[in-house]
Amino acid sequence: MQRVVFPNKLLPYLLVAPQIILTIVFFFWPASQALYQSTMREDAFGLKTKFVALANFKAIFNDPTYLHSLQVTVVFSLATALLSMCVALLLATAADKVVRGQTFYRTLLIWPYAVAPAVAGMLWLFMFNPAMGTLAYLLRRNGVHWDPVLDGNQAMLLVVVAAAWKQVSYNFLFFVAGLQAIPKSLIEAAAIDGARGSRRFWTIVFPLLAPTTFFLLVVNTVYAFFDTFGIIHAVTGGGPAKATETLVYKVYNDGFVNLNLGSSAAQSVVLMVIVIALTAFQFRFVEKRVHYS
Fold first, then answer.
1. DSSP secondary structure string for all residues of 20-45
2. Which segments of the chain are extended strands (E)?
3. Which among 147, 170, 194, 283 has the fewest CB atoms less than 10 Å away?
4. How far apart are CA 124 and CA 117, in angstroms?
């Protein structure tokens, strides 16, 4: 292995300095502020602060609405990650078989990723709004009582589909890249040996996509926990009756709407710990089943 030697000893530090500064300013500093705020309690007017140690954490874990939001987050995250990855894998395998117009089809499938989460949420809201949505009208016309404004299960289904649709394009890019990296000679050899259709996919192709699938599993978990706030805010606003209020949306409600900054900060700390623990668990146990060669 060839070792890189810099002529100036300060040059390596200068090259990584921008990334270190960004990490400190946009991660470590906000995280430290959240940790500090989680141990404090303010009065209703924000004039006084009082150190309460772990009282905010005890309060949120004894709060039924917080435990409900935790349950909603688990269901929402699992459903969003599984739906977006399965649909993306299906589309990637279909696009990989297209001979003519590959670039055109792939470009069409990538476009949704360029849509902002709030805009994506509004698109699905307009289509499935019970008062004016075209698709909502078709559902009711075919005997489906569609009303996500009052039905919590339908509201959850709507935000899951909207969030998954937004993430499908991202997953599609990586699955296509993973499929292109598989040697064609290996697929042809499997076909000659009699492995056809779904059997060839699950025994040859999918195991070779394990590194890509593992990476997307981690990314989609983080996405479902954090980056879906705009979609939920635009589509349901956490309703009806908090049926779609995830942890990140409850942090927003308690902190910016109800101005309970201590509780909101404690919730953000717990949310950060949960995501770090899930990521560590995936790398510790799930990665063992991933083969990189």
1. HHHHIIIIIHHHHHHHHHHTEEE-TT
2. 40-42, 49-51
3. 194
4. 11
Q: Tell me, what's the pLDDT at 60?
A: 92
HEC string of 113-136 equals HHCCHHHHHHHHHHHHCCCCCHHH
Is residue 112 within 8 Å of 120, Cβ to Cβ?
yes
Cα 264 from chain centroid (whole Å)? 21
pLDDT in tens, 7-61: 777 888 888 999 999 999 988 898 888 889 899 887 767 678 888 888 999 999 9
Reading the block at residue 123, the tokens are 């698109």
Cα–Cα distance measured from residue 241 to residue 16, given in angstroms and rounded to the nearest whole number? 47
The two tokens of residue 36 are 């500090």
| Terminal alpha carbon distance of the chain | 21
The residue to which tokens 């150190």 are assigned: 51
Alpha carbon distance 39, 59 (integer Å):
12
Predicted TM-score of the model (pTM): 0.85
